[in-house]
């Protein structure tokens, strides 16, 4: 008896030790969920709402308020590099979206010249040149035909960022660049670091797989985005008490207040969605190709794709559309007259890349009109989740005076 | 790991090798792949820091390079017995943050060996792999510490090796 119980105990003890060892091994080799593409395709931000439908009320409220404002969402793989990857991807996407070949070439020259910073802090060219090369290569790709002819088609950038080598090389280049920037311009950052710049850059910035922190974002924005006139904005989705995500904008604080029209700014703003420990990208309605819907198809498209986001058009090309357009178009096409006029002038590029006319100045004006129109129309339609007729409507979200 | 990562790593290692052959690194006596077939397995000779108890010693290092290099660090171990607070006396394992969490792709194999040489004279006795010698250092017995190291240098690492690969 005694022997049996002892041996049982022993076995139990061994098992526990084994279990402990297993657990320890698990925790030592733990890696965050790395499923999914490095950079995902555009999706409807409704997905976020669905994801949090059963969660804490704070999240339900915030995600429900998010989707009317930010129509689209793009996942970034949670491999510890998501912040860096989101920012790097967004930078290329914004550059491509300008459709401005000259502008992209200027950025290419600027980034090439910034290599001098890395030399200055003693990095060897032969050790970093491979990384820089990938950045320059992608800039070249998006500054040339065919990519530049379809500035709203993100395929070249998405493809490059899903190739492990290119994607990682580009973020490594940016990490080294930021590291050099920190060492050459310590005054702007030193006050925010508990240790030294040297410790900070070697433990938080340079190593691959270390999540970017707020200061890292700031430094990268200072190096990459602000000199190019681009804005980065982070929406924080967390449990803090409020009804909407908190938005923080990284801008050039030294510059005089901007007088650029909102339209222009939307085209130059990268929006990140931050959930504790992870970054993804979100897009406002106006950020994405508003001028991509052929007039002749709008009515059909609207009729068949209520609330849909990705629509495979008959033209054989995939369009990313936001759900709100469909309601506008259906109403305007059906009411005729002015609606048709608006479409005709506002959407000169009937087919992707067929005219190459891009967005002229008249288009920009008209787009303003459309934005106005559909915001109001949208707000009062049942597509709006805060509208009492919406299927996902939740009473506490309804404020009729809006 | 996709084959492209492997190809990138090979290309970069070849580049590093040709660079090393052009420029002298005072911390290194020899450095290169063990054989022509495998670019991911190197050996190198580490020279003891001048004006330190390690002066005059040369240690063989085994360097194994992962497929996703330079995103991940090489694994470096001492093949010659090394007496140092942060080196395991039996396995030759090295405790150096650069070889673990603080690895950066801006380092190469040659500069990694330089960093290991720098570790010789700036040990971290608070995270020891060799408790005995770390205790000597922590208790302030520098005479004992230095002479123990000198003994190990004389006993195991004294012969100057010229070239390897």
From TrEMBL, chain A:
Gene3D superfamilies to which the protein is assigned, alphabetical: Peptidase C65 Otubain, subdomain 1 (3.30.200.60), Peptidase C65 Otubain, subdomain 2 (1.20.1300.20)
PROSITE patterns: OTU (PS50802)
CDD domains to which the protein is assigned, alphabetical: Otubain_C65 (cd22749)
Transmembrane feature ranges: none
Keywords: Hydrolase, Protease, Thiol protease, Ubl conjugation pathway
Catalytic activity: Thiol-dependent hydrolysis of ester, thioester, amide, peptide and isopeptide bonds formed by the C-terminal Gly of ubiquitin (a 76-residue protein attached to proteins as an intracellular targeting signal)
UniProt-recorded name of the protein: ubiquitinyl hydrolase 1
Record organism: Dactylellina haptotyla (strain CBS 200.50) (Nematode-trapping fungus)
Automatic annotation (TrEMBL), chain B:
Top-rank lineage group of the source organism: Eukaryota
Protein's UniProt name: UBC core domain-containing protein
Record flagged with keyword Oxidoreductase: no
PANTHER family the UniProt entry points to: UBIQUITIN-CONJUGATING ENZYME E2
One Pfam family cited in the UniProt record for this chain: UQ_con
Keywords: Ubl conjugation pathway
Positions of the UBC core domain: 8-158
Endpoints of the signal sequence: none
């Amino acid at each position: 008896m005694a022997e049996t119980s002892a041996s049982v105990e022993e076995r139990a003890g061994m098992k526990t030790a084994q279990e402990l060892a297993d657990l320890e091994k698990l925790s030592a080799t733990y890696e965050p969920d790395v499923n999914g593409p490095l950079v995902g395709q555009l999706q409807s931000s409704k997905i976020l709402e669905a994801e949090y439908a059963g969660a804490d009320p704070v999240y339900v409220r915030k995600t429900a308020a998010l989707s009317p404002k930010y129509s689209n969402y793009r996942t970034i793989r949670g491999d510890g590099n998501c912040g860096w990857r989101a920012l790097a991807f967004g930078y290329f996407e914004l550059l491509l979206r300008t459709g401005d070949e000259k502008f992209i070439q200027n950025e290419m020259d600027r980034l090439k010249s910034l290599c001098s910073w890395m030399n200055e802090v003693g990095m060897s060219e032969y050790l970093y040149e491979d990384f820089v090369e990938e950045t320059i290569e992608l800039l070249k790709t998006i500054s040339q035909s065919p990519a530049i002819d379809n500035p709203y088609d993100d395929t070249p950038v998405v493809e490059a960022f899903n190739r492990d080598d290119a994607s990682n090389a580009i973020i490594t280049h940016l990490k080294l660049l930021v590291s050099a920037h920190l060492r050459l311009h310590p005054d702007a950052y030193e006050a925010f670091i508990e240790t030294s710049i040297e410790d900070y850059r070697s433990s938080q910035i340079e190593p691959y797989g270390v999540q970017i922190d707020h200061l890292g974002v700031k430094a990268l924005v200072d190096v990459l985005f602000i000199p190019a006139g681009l804005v980065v904005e982070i929406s924080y989705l967390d449990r803090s008490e409020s009804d909407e995500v908190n938005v923080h904008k990284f801008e050039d604080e030294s510059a005089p207040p901007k007088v650029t029209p909102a339209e222009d700014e939307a085209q130059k703003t990268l929006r990140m969605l931050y959930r504790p420990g992870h970054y993804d990208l979100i897009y406002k309605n106006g950020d994405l190709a508003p001028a991509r819907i052929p007039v002749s198809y709008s009515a059909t498209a609207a009729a068949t794709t209520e609330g849909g986001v990705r629509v495979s058009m008959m033209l054989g090309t995939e369009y990313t559309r936001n759900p709100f357009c469909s309601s506008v178009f259906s109403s305007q096409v059906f009411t005729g007259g002015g609606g048709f006029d608006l479409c005709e002038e506002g959407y000169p590029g009937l087919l992707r890349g067929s005219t190459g006319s891009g967005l002229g100045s008249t288009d920009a004006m008209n787009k303003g009109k459309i934005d106005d129109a559909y915001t109001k129309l949208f707000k009062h339609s049942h597509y709006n989740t805060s509208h009492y007729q919406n299927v996902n409507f939740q009473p506490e979200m309804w404020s009729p005076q809006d | 790991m996709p084959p492209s990562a492997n190809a990138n790593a090979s290309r970069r290692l070849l580049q590093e090798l040709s660079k090393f052959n052009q420029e002298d690194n005072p911390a290194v006596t020899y450095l290169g792949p063990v054989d022509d077939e495998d670019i991911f397995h190197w050996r190198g000779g580490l020279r003891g820091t001048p004006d330190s108890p390690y002066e005059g010693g040369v240690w063989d290092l085994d360097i194994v390079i992962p497929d996703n290099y330079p995103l991940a660090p090489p694994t470096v171990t001492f093949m010659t017995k090394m007496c140092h607070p942060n080196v395991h006396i039996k396995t030759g394992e090295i405790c150096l943050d650069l070889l673990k969490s603080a690895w950066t792709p801006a380092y190469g194999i040659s500069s990694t060996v330089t960093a290991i040489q720098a570790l010789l004279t700036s040990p971290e006795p608070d995270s020891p792999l060799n408790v005995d010698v770390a205790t000597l250092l922590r208790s302030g017995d520098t005479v004992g510490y230095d002479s123990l190291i000198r003994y190990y240098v004389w006993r195991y690492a004294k012969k100057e090796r010229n070239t390897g690969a």
